[in-house]
Design brief:
The protein is of the alpha+beta class. It has 12 helices and 10 strands. The chain has 2 domains: 2-105, 2-Layer Sandwich (Alpha-Beta Plaits); 116-332, Aminopeptidase (3-Layer(aba) Sandwich), CATH 3.40.630. Helix 7 (207-215) crosses helix 12 (310-332). One of its GO terms (molecular function) is zinc ion binding. Residues 1-22 form the signal peptide. Its main location: secreted.
Length: 339
């Protein structure tokens, strides 16, 4: 998305003549599936040598035969790139015809105060709005929410963690959730906000949430990469089988409730190899249970998941988090029984 917004500023004024009519060529997202190794090599070259941005996969290294590639093509490169694809018999389809319009829609918010808008949690928010939300959430829930400053980013932005704790029972387990590792995946911080709001709102009425918070302290870091997240808003441009068992149940519940199929397994195989994440850090500390969610959308919208999809994406992830947390409680301690 960083490259996407930069290209929008540079290229939006370009107009091309086509078939004797004056039409405005817009930025586009192309979907391409290479069928031969030659086509793979050409796509790798296009994604690195031309004014384009690779959306899927994460790196040209992972472009393979019969694997879908999503390529952002700015307006001034559109004709050149499409002619190159045509010369090499590489077929494509337009996945998004005008991503800039979608970006503008997604950054349009009706309010920064969660108490004044019923749609607050169904919209994306800037880093400043999220900081405001963190303080407001703590002020509104002083007995349950504690805000902890755990450090700062490279550019000196604060890293805030919200601790949800409803009792002082000894020997409680802890659950850690961090969002916003990859700056352009806006749905990730949106889920962290959603999860906190849901947990606070339904602690007394949802049996699963009650069970989780009675037995665990939950730590949530809404934006792990604040520098990158801020940039995307302001710049134009050993227990493998056990872990598998837990995530399999979560995936099955999502399929049963929402008819959506989530692939499960090691992150390097199901998503892509990405060393240095918080899951690796947790593993090296000896933390037994560590999971990574790849949230929507891996289809048409990619990183530009429309706000109308936030509710469904967050409910799916919420179901998975509840399932995993309850399974961890089941495996590590006896659930609390009412007095």
């Amino acid at each position: 998305m960083k490259a996407l917004l930069i290209w929008f500023v540079l290229m939006n004024l370009d107009k091309l003549l086509k078939t004797a009519h004056c039409t405005e060529t817009q930025d586009q997202i192309l979907s391409i599936t290479p069928k031969t190794q030659e086509q793979v090599d050409i796509l790798k070259n296009v994604s690195t040598q031309y004014e384009t941005a690779l959306w899927q996969p994460v790196s040209p290294y992972y472009i393979k035969e019969d694997t879908q590639v999503h390529l952002f093509v700015p307006a001034n490169s559109s004709e050149t790139v499409k002619d190159l694809l045509l010369r090499h018999a590489i077929t494509h389809e337009v996945l998004l015809a005008n991503p800039n319009e979608l970006i503008e829609m997604q950054t349009r918010n009706d309010s920064t105060d969660p108490r004044s808008s019923s749609t607050f949690y169904e919209r994306y928010h800037s880093l400043e709005d999220i900081y405001f939300w963190i303080n407001r959430t703590q002020q509104d829930n002083p007995d349950t929410v504690k805000v902890i400053l755990i450090g700062s980013s490279f550019e000196k932005r604060p890293l805030y963690v919200l601790k949800l704790s409803v009792n002082n029972r000894p020997n409680k387990k802890a659950m850690w959730i961090d969002c916003g590792i990859h700056a352009r995946e806006w749905i990730s911080p949106a889920f962290c906000l959603w999860f906190v709001q849901y947990s606070l709102s339904f602690y007394h009425s949802n049996r699963d949430i009650t069970n989780i918070l009675d037995n665990m302290d939950v730590y949530i870091l809404p934006v792990l990469n604040p520098d990158g997240y801020h940039y995307t808003w302001t710049t134009e441009t050993e227990n493998h089988s056990e872990l598998l068992e837990i995530v399999q149940e979560a995936a099955q519940k999502i399929k049963r409730h929402y008819r959506n199929i989530y692939e499960y397994g090691s992150g390097a195989k199901t998503i892509y190899l990405a060393p240095g994440g918080s899951d690796d850090w947790a593993y090296n500390l000896g933390i037994k249970y560590s999971f990574t969610f790849e949230l929507q959308d891996r289809g048409r919208y990619g990183f530009l998941l429309p706000p109308s999809h936030i509710s469904k994406a967050c409910n799916e992830a919420l179901l998975a988090v509840k399932t995993i947390a309850l399974k961890v409680i089941e495996k590590t301690q006896a659930p609390t029984t009412p007095a």
